Amino acid sequence: MLKGKNIVLGVSGGIAAYKACELTSRLKKLNANVDVIMTKSAAEFVTPLTFQSLSLNQVVTDMFDKPKYWEIEHISLAKKADIVVIAPATANVIGKLANGIADDMLTTTVMASKAIKLIAPAMNTNMYENPVVQKNIETLKQLGYVFVEPGEGRLACGDIGKGKLAEPEVIELAIKELLLPVRDLEGKTVLVTAGPTVEHLDPVRFITNHSTGKMGFAVAERAARRGAKVVLIAGPTNLTAPQGVERVDVQSALEMKEAVMLHMKEADIIIKSAAVADYRPAEISSEKIKKSEEELTIKLEKNPDILFELGKVKGDRVLIGFAMETQNLIENAKAKVQKKNLDFIVANDLRTEGAGFAGDTNVVKIIDRQGSIEEVPLMKKSELADIVLDRALSVCNR
Ligand code: C5P
Q1: Taking the mean position of all CA atoms in its chain, how far away is CA 43?
Q2: C-alpha of 333 from chain center
């Protein structure tokens, strides 16, 4: 499958280095050429000979080793790589890459390479959550480095939390996706809405909800990876827009409606995963509301239902809604499909474990116009995003 592909695998110094052995072996089974570069500390955990035996290539650890072939080694590896993978990537290596430090063979090669870069971090939870590390990861993401999220669980140090190296098969899948991308949405424009809306009461306060935007951002990311032109209309979130996505930031439901109506014209597929406020304060006070009375009544007026408006004018476009319920999930979702003229709805129950706003997973039911129900088990939001896009594409091609 990966015949003719050159993978440079950087292994840095953590106990998870042993998992890179399995990764090497998996990549070799797919007929890739694998050149392993180890940091000095990685070589304390696993010997270069192990990687040499698995990759059937010389393993590079030291910049000042006598070259085996008369080439400037880091430049030649950097040039021939189709992808540079760092697994495990320590906080140290991530920090160096984000700050332009190239003081060993691995960081020098990465810096000299124009290939795709895939980073699989592994470290203690506190290190992973350290704002400096998070900032470095963010910097690299913005530069186009792709990350395979670490898993959660018991770490080698005994702590429990996020920081476990992703499983070798997950890293292998990410490599395959990057080297053999599926571009089945090429030529299509996908409009995605994400996040909450905020409805201002006065210059200080607003009404909002718990939506983080993770689901919509995952859909935007997957659609862009699959070749679509993506417009992402986002309420306030802390998330970074995926690469190659046109982001339009909005605050209120009214602003979201305006942006959606403007961009829907060019869209083939519209996915409304935003949690839009149903009501807004009837008046926005220009001054801060003072606490003078014992009681304060705020009059709310109805926001437009953007999805309902879209349903009236959708034409041939594929229109997908999301529904979050706390009761009568199926009946409510079925009614929304009809009322809002949707092709299908992705419904979840806020109280189901693994579903809901802030997490990285979801458990949903997909309900179509005919009322048929697909039960989608617990999975990552990015995987669910692909399922939603698969279904959208099959409606498009009908
Ligand atoms: O009717 P309900 O709000 O539960 O429907 C949820 C779906 O409708 C979501 O796809 C959401 O983005 C959309 N919606 C909307 N405008 C609103 C409220 C919800 O587009 N004012």
Answers
A1: 32
A2: 26
Laid out side by side, the sheet with 6-11 consists of 33-38, 6-11, 83-89, 116-121, 146-147
- Ligand 1 in reach of 168 Cβ (< 6 A): no
To test the ligand 1 pocket, which listed residue (209, 303, 307) has its Cβ within 8 A of the most ligand atoms? Answer: 307
How sure is the predictor about 181, in pLDDT bands with cuts at 50, 70 and 90? confident
Ligand 1 atom with minimal separation from the 274 CA: 12
Q: Rounded to whole angstroms, how far apart are CA atoms 74 and 119?
A: 18
pLDDT tens per residue, range 18-32? 999 999 999 999 999
Least-confidence region, from 73-77, 176-180, 202-206, 389-393:
73-77
The residue annotated as part of the active site, out of 75, 157, 160, 289, is 157
Domain architecture of the chain: domains with CATH: 6-179 (3.40.50.1950), 189-396 (3.40.50.10300)
- Decide whether any atom of ligand 1 lies within 6 Å of the 272 Cβ: yes
Tell how far the Cα of 325 is from the centroid of ligand 1, in angstroms: 11
Rounded to two decimals, what is the model's pTM? 0.77
21 is annotated as an active-site residue: no
pLDDT > 60? residue 73: no
Q: Which pLDDT score is estimated for 67?
A: 52
CA angle 129, 214, 380 (to 5 degrees): 85
Tens of pLDDT, residue by residue over 333-379, are 999 999 999 999 999 988 888 887 778 889 999 999 999 999 999 99
d(CA 88, CA 77): 19
CA 47, 50, 53, 57 dihedral sign is negative
Question: CA-to-CA distance for 63 and 306, rounded, in angstroms?
Answer: 59
Ligand 1 atom with the shortest distance to the CA of 320: 10
